[in-house]
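Take a minute with the sequence and fold tokens given here and flag any structure token that looks odd. Thanks in advance.
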Amino acid sequence: MFKVLLFAGTTEGRLIAEHLKNKKAQVIVSVATDYGKTLIEETPNIRISSSRLNKEEIKVFLEEEKVDFVIDATHPYAVEVSKNIKNACLELDKECLRVIRKEEEISSSDLENVIFVDSIEEACEYLNTTKGNVLVTTGSKEVEKYTAINNYEERIFARVLSTDEVVNKCNSLGFKGRNLIAMQGPFTNEFNKALLKQINAKFLVTKSSGKEGGFHEKIQSALETGVKAIVIGRPLKEEGLTLNEVLSLLDDRLNIKRTRTVNLVSIGLGNMNTMTLEAKEVFENCDVLIGADRMLKSLEVFDKPSFKSYKYAEILDFIKEHDEYKNVAIAYSGDAGFYSGAKKMIERIEGYNVNVIPGISSVVYFASKLKISWEDIKLVSMHGRDVNIVHEVLNNKTVFTLLGGDKSDVKSVMRKLYDFGLGDLKVAIGSNLSYEDELIKEGYVSNFIDSDITGLCVAIFFNETYDSSIYRNIKDDEFIRDKVPMTKEDIRSLSIIKLGLLEDSILYDIGAGTGSIGIEAALNLSKGKVYAIEKKEEATLLISRNKEKFKADNLIIVKGSAPHALMNLDIPTHAFIGGSSGNLREIVELLLYKNPEIKIVINSITLETLVEAMEIAKEFSFVDVDITQITAAKSRKIAGYNMMTGQNPIYIITLKGGEKLD
């Protein structure tokens, strides 16, 4: 059987030992101390030796054990040990793999608060020119060198391992009481910051020990607390393999097919009491935690390595680069199936065994607090999303929404609804649900227009008089019109049907007039929007009044002439042209440039416009052209009789798609 001698003593050594557990290889793990022995599990194929070996003793050990090859995963600063291992292997012609760490870079903007030195001695010389407490995190092996600092017994706070041997050594040198911190890492950024503040540190001394040595967390905590960091550079530039490269090589030698699991874990609302037992079990057994800052803070109790990010690309790159983590947990708030980043992560992640762990969502929790059922609630999220909340509350009996962001905080949302005449709408607001400062308030929209409620907020709106119609049709006499021309009801309805709008369509209403087409279309677009383009001042004022009257929040008024006024608008899916001011060809050309698959509906009274539209249809090779002529007549009362009054005949030209212009 393949036999490996692993010199451990670092995180990498422990991870390699775990990787080889129960594999088809005999593994001897050599650690320098009894404490190091407690960090690695002995298994049927893993034997642990805790003794310090010089070069000759290593040679004897290699020959007696008939080792196939050696892995040196000792600390980057254990220079003499690595030298002995390397020379022993060279003399016996044994293959030796050196595990190295990637240097962690410090951004140029942070360099002014970081000092680089070559040795502990140089660090001590510098500290003797300063005043203030010092947190030393370079270990106990050379801690005696810090006794060269003036008044070191009071100034120096040494953080070392919590073994009897280390503690006794430090005490004998004068590091004792509150100036000796005996603890086992890894340490988080937050923990480091708290410790620096507790001891009122002005300086932090660390070695450039890479991610595994917590270098980034140390530097970050120093920068965030205003503490000057003194970095001792590595004594030499090593050649070797990274941890991932060593693990891959071992798999190749042992014919191991690596399987990695990525768990997308719903953590509930944040309080540990709302986390499922399944989620807790995943976090307890995972190798690394990934998530946004708020998620990771709530999971510090699990004491796992972590990576702070909510961006898909960063997370996937991290997982790919850190092959040593076989069981990955990505934390998501609430439930992974309810407006969660887990949806897009599932679409992007490939090559792993993916599990989705459900959780308690905010809507479930909030509904239970209000003692209501949530089965018929319309669910939306305004947290980082563009949602037409006015449309939602007008067309649904009950609406739940997540809130968050500058334009969707409690005050902004309530003010918008109030401005659209919905101040009497009942609402319940929840903030920081499940936390100690949880707040739940009920009332009317008008009660919260000046609200100072902050934090993680949700709301449920109740509308007993909601509009349940499938299609909202507006009568002509409902519009505020004055003397501005308006597309009549029957023509308007057929034109909108011809457009074939979807719930998230983006429509240009060009030559909007009173805005009758745009308003009616907007009221039927739950997730889309309408741009009403109109050049006349009088007409834009009427559109604004109609927008307010019909609560069409997703209609945006653009004053100007097409095509110029269309240049900087969102890409349209549909366009209605009710008036072109002689610019029909230029307008259609720009619409096709912005979206080659756009659907356009043109209303024409004159034959000249019809002819021009047909020429345009041929020129731009639309894939579908439809022309409908319609003459509508309306009844009116005359002396007790109903008389039909005909309206002008209208041509409705529908153009679909086209070839993209060069």
Notes: Residues 259-360 form a domain with the Cobalt-precorrin-4 Transmethylase; domain 1 fold (CATH 3.40.1010.10). Residues 151 and 622 are 86 Å apart (CA to CA).
